[in-house]
């Protein structure tokens, strides 16, 4: 029943995806959204998966592979880490990813990036990494990262497709459209590098305060809504050497 509903909606909202080749003669940046224990590692906290999850495991593997590729090429990488103060809850969600705990640390497959010189780590205490990049003096770590590195395209991966990934993509595209992010042109969301969590309706009904959140459907909707804003949705990505004229 559930999978039939998902198929029906996917037919009504078909999502065309592309195989994207990122040309190596311009700077491409990789943005990792919240690939931290509190959202990805089994049993790590209130918002962590309760059991191994194929979509989340796939997202971690693809993100780690891309992070290795970008680090080998010394390309800029920005990692957002959800990180909250204990006295500032983020409704409608239960307490999660408290600063300094294991929950707000990168998953084991990505911990190595903290020591890479091309990687910028940004802790944020809100869904949207763009707003979470605003400093007290009004500057923006993400905007500066794009400008200082002359980034032409960003590739976005992480969790959750329909929440933190989507919010960041929406804000970034609006900022780009208003001319705040030159020379950034393309915002690419890599579908196999994204994941969301799974709370089926029957579980949500029995959990106080929980919203229904079927994983496949919400992942699809997140990608679809990103595409509605003008993001490129990729099901394959590679770095390509441009041919000499
Ligand atoms: Zn949060």
UniProtKB/TrEMBL annotation:
Pfam families: Isochorismatase. The lineage of its organism: Eukaryota, Viridiplantae, Streptophyta, Embryophyta, Tracheophyta. Residues 30-204 form the Isochorismatase-like domain. Belongs to the isochorismatase family. Transmembrane segments: none annotated. GO terms for biological process: pyridine nucleotide salvage. This is Isochorismatase-like domain-containing protein. PANTHER family: OS02G0606800 PROTEIN, PTHR47297. GO terms for molecular function: nicotinamidase activity. It comes from Populus deltoides (Eastern poplar).
């Amino acid at each position: 029943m559930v999978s039939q509903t998902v198929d029906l909606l996917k037919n009504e909202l078909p999502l065309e995806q592309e195989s994207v080749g990122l040309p190596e003669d311009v700077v491409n940046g990789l943005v990792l959204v919240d690939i931290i224990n509190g959202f990805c590692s089994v049993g790590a906290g209130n918002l962590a998966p309760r059991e191994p999850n194929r979509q989340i495991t796939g997202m971690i593997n693809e993100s780690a592979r891309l992070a290795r590729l970008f680090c080998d090429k010394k390309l800029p990488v920005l990692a957002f880490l959800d990180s909250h103060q204990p006295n500032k809850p983020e409704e409608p969600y239960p307490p999660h990813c408290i600063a300094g705990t294991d929950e707000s640390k990168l998953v084991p497959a990505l911990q190595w990036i903290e020591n890479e010189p091309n990687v910028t780590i940004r802790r944020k205490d809100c869904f949207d990494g763009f707003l979470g990049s605003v400093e007290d003096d009004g500057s923006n770590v993400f905007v500066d990262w794009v400008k200082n590195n002359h980034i032409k395209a960003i590739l976005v991966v992480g969790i959750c497709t329909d929440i933190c990934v989507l919010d960041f993509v929406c804000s970034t595209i609006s900022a780009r459209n208003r001319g705040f992010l030159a020379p950034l042109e393309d915002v690419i969301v890599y579908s196999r590098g994204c994941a969301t969590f799974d709370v089926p309706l029957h579980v949500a009904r029995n959990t106080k305060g929980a919203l229904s959140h079927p994983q496949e459907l919400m992942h699809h909707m997140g990608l679809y809504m990103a595409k509605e804003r003008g993001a490129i949705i990729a099901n394959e990505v590679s770095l390509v050497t441009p041919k000499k004229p």
